[in-house]
Amino acid sequence: EKGGHDYFMLKEIAEQPKAVADTLLGRIDGAGSLRLDEVRIPVGVLRQVDKVVIVACGTAFHAGLIAKYAIEHWTRIPCEVELASEFRYRDPILDQQTLVIAVSQSGETMDTLMALRHAREQGSKVLAICNTNGSTIPRESDAVLYTHAGPEVAVASTKAFLTQLVACYLVALYLGQVRGTKFADEIRDVVRDLSRMPGAVERVLGTMGPVRELARSLAGKGTVLFLGRHVGYPVALEGALKLKELAYMHAEGFAAGELKHGPIALIEEDLPVVVVVPSPRGRSVLHDKIVSNIQEIRARGARTIVIAEEGDEAVVPYADHLVRVPVTPTLLQPLVATVPLQVFACELATARGNEVDQPRNLAKSVTVE
Ligand code: M6R
């Protein structure tokens, strides 16, 4: 049942190209337009939306953080992302023009369910992004866009995360389409780029040998830090969460720009620091800033593990370990940049003798608040 893999997690990591392809399947027509008939919220209502609020927990929350960049960029609708467990206790400002998106693999997470109930009580429309047919969250929402990752058994979420990202991109593009934003041309390009992502994820999976080897060499470490900017920041948070869950190590993700506001004090000789580097094309300012962040931490002794696009030569002199990912538009990079972090955490957990599919103290779906 593990398809020849030692763990469900490895099987699910390997299934990601298919999961991404399946989640795109039938949702983009031949002309490059989004066909999201499942989103039964009337187009007239979607045109009136003046704020998007994403609620989710854990890994799904990280997908939401990435979605914010895409939604705001492609639709110019303000978007907030909030941990579902915090949401309703702060009396959030919601009305009929707010679209709430609840992201959940299981569809049974109590915190997320309570958040969406609260949103509907305030008159907001709720769209669920969910991987489990007929579960409670989609049943209680106004509409659902299913992710087609297939059953995810390992407690640590992998393929569900990538498909949540795809679903979020599709929703963002769809909102852009129904509202006719001035990014129409860009949207067509993104749709084309999205259809190439299953192949890109496949390529990353084919190059993971050195990442595994590196992970094993770090099994005795106590701490690993993760840095990113822009969409690389939530990817860093996700990399740290995977490592906590699986390797039981102290792991933290930071926005690289925050380094000098505190975290840089943590850098010491030989501390492993994973840095997610955005594409040097397009937003080159971002790229240059993170290259100087890598220099700063390396000058203080950090062991730098750099995840950067193929052909990005600027990072080479400062990378103790370099992990290449295919060239993608910046907003889509999380689909490839997350994969090495999943493999890294899984391998570290194995090297430390931990139970990969069923980490201590954790449950696959958290049905209590
Ligand atoms: O089923 P959900 O997507 O609602 O679950 C949310 C979190 O509990 C989940 O993502 C958790 O953080 C995972 N164990 C992360 O790997």
Automatic annotation (TrEMBL):
Its EC number is 2.6.1.16. One of its GO terms (molecular function) is glutamine-fructose-6-phosphate transaminase (isomerizing) activity. Its main location: cytoplasm. Keywords: Aminotransferase, Cytoplasm, Glutamine amidotransferase, Repeat, Transferase. It comes from the Bacteria. It is an enzyme of class 2 (transferase). It catalyses: D-fructose 6-phosphate + L-glutamine = D-glucosamine 6-phosphate + L-glutamate. It is found in: Cytoplasm. The active site is at 364 (for fru-6p isomerization activity). The keyword Transferase applies. Residues 42-181, 214-359 form the SIS domain. Signal peptide: none annotated. Catalyzes the first step in hexosamine metabolism, converting fructose-6P into glucosamine-6P using glutamine as a nitrogen source. Homodimer. This is Glutamine--fructose-6-phosphate aminotransferase [isomerizing]. It comes from Streptomyces flavalbus.
